[in-house]
Amino acid sequence: MEKIVIIILLIIPMLPTLWAITDIAYKDFGSLQRKALWGVLVVLLPCIGGIIYFFFGRRKGKQQEA
């Protein structure tokens, strides 16, 4: 039981980061540099970077056209 709690406590903070990385990969930010900047921010600041992207970067990217 303790192992499950530990695993959950380690996975939950990483969810915003994983979501942000996926979202960045599928959006167009106008330039590769902007996309890379958001990616680097999210990767270098794992838990906080995903939350920052959620509030500030999510609306800047546009869905890529198929």
The largest beta-sheet arranges its strands as 1-2
DSSP helix count?
4
User: What is the typical, i.e. mean, pLDDT?
Assistant: 87
Our measurement of the CA-to-CA distance between the termini, rounded to an integer number of angstroms, reads 45 Å
Descriptive report:
With 66 residues, the chain is mainly alpha-helical. It has one domain. 71% of the residues lie in helices and 6% in strands. It is built from 4 helices and 2 strands. The chain is elongated and about 45 Å long.
Features:
single chain, 66 residues, mainly alpha, two-stranded antiparallel sheet, 4 helices, 71% helix, 6% strand
What is this entry, summarized?
With 66 residues, this protein is mainly alpha-helical. The protein has helices at 2-11, 15-26, 32-44, 46-57, and strands at residues 27-28, 62-63.
List the topology elements.
Blueprint: H1 2-11, H2 15-26, E1 27-28, H3 32-44, H4 46-57, E2 62-63
Antiparallel strand pairs: 1-2
Helix pairs in contact: 2-3, 2-4, 3-4
